[in-house]
Amino acid sequence: MAFLLSHIGLDLERVSAIDGAKLQFPIDDFDERGLRHRRRPNPYETGCFLGHAELVIRPFSTKLHGRIHAVISVFVRA
Q: Which of 12, 18, 20, 27 could form a disulfide with 43 if both were Cys (CB 3.0 to 4.6 A apart)?
């Protein structure tokens, strides 16, 4: 992926996943009620949600300097 993007002149920033098993609850600025579907979400679901939320928030929380940002999320099953 990095080679293909650099070949067409795009920079790549890899954002690490959030390991739900290492989360300490409660989490500041996070309300798990938004993830509930008739049950309490498990830590892995919460980590997944927070990781994807980071991808959405990051471009808006950094100075763009006229650059275009794209969010590409890749799921790899081991």
A: 20
- Tens of pLDDT along the chain (78 residues) come to 788 888 888 777 777 888 999 998 888 878 777 776 677 778 888 888 888 888 777 766 666 555 656 666 665 555
Tokens representing 57?
């928030």
Contact indicator for 24, 47 with CB cutoff of 8 Å: no
Decide: pTM greater than 0.70.
no
Q: Which long-range contacts link 58-61 to residues 24+ away (Cβ below 8 Å)?
A: 58/15
Measured between alpha carbons, how far is 51 from 69 in angstroms, rounded to an integer? 17
